[in-house]
Amino acid sequence: MGYVELRDINKHFKKFHASKDINISIEKGKLVALLGPSGSGKTTILRMIAGLENPDSGEILIDGKVVNNTPGSERGIGFVFQNYALFRYMNVYDNIAFGLRVKKIPEDKIKARVTELLTLIDCQGLEKRFPSQLSGGQRQRVAFARALAPNPQILLLDEPFAAIDAKVRSELRTWLREMITKLQITSIFVTHDQDEAIEVADEIIVTNQGKVEQAGTPQELYKNPATPFVAQFIGNSVEVKNYEQFKHFDKQSDDSIAYLRPEFVSIFKKGESVQFASSAEEAIVEDTIFRGSNIEVRARIHGNLISAIRSINDAEIKVGEKVDVFIYRLYVVSGNEVILETNSSLKDEEVVI
Fold first, then answer.
1. 242 and 200, same structural domain?
2. Are residues 266 and 176 in the same domain?
3. How confident is residue 353, by pLDDT bands cut at 50, 70 and 90?
4. Exposure check for the chain: N or C terminus, fewer CB within 10 A?
5. Could you list the residue range(s) of the whole structural domain that residue 100 is in?
6. Number of domains within the chain
7. Residue 276's Cα: distance from chain center in Å?
8. Cα(324)–Cα(276) distance, rounded to whole angstroms?
9. For 73-99, what is each residue's pLDDT tens digit?
């Protein structure tokens, strides 16, 4: 039994079915991401756990107890909102202390707790500043501390990094991961950014059109997508048509389609000495994109525009150039089944990708 469980949960907003037979089990102390595109139902799930929305049917359990009729304020939950929701007329100290004062905690204990949290979030000396005087990263840390102040059993975060610039976002991901590991607090965060989910979460729950598609560790979801949606959503996958035209791949069924990720592809300049050269095929480069530490090369083959990554130390490839392409593997979707197909020329070889 999980520490947080949703059993057969359904939720409608008028005629819109936002949650469809949701079943989720989250272990105590885990950091779990609810990942999916906009409108997939992930925020609705978070709000129902928090008590901000009520399910139409099903049960929500926390620590083995059904909490459907328990007010959110009594569920032992801390909530960090996407826009921080800090009180702009309160300074940092008073924002963090707010929940404790609502509970009528003695002021000396409030001071000790706020001081402890300011140290935890590395914001000592900012007690008297107002939210408008803080950076985005500092505001998010203060929102985190305010949610933690009453010692909640569960921490919920709604797109916690969405309003922060890319560099600070990366730093905060690492910081959040370290804090939650240190505190061992059960945490659930909503995101549409798969890189964020893969980097931060112990477990990912993928949602789509109000349903749970798959749950598992980041590695499990990345390597073994269980549904067609997960196969095309996780990783920078592209759909490839007529995949049986690629050398050493066979058509699985008449209605099957395939998805290809950049790490499944190698693109070489003509004349480069490469393994499996006899199994490579010719393609035309249509675009190259500098990614800082590497180069993404996009080439067209059998009518499909595919991508591969090359090191910035490799020989330059230019648009319009003829290159050799080798495809190691791809995901084939037939009905509701997802199959990882490997290039048959590799059967007697060991290749690590």
1. no
2. no
3. very low
4. N
5. 4-228
6. 2
7. 35
8. 11
9. 999 999 998 777 899 999 999 999 999
Domain boundary among 203, 228, 253: 228
| Residue 323: inside a domain | yes
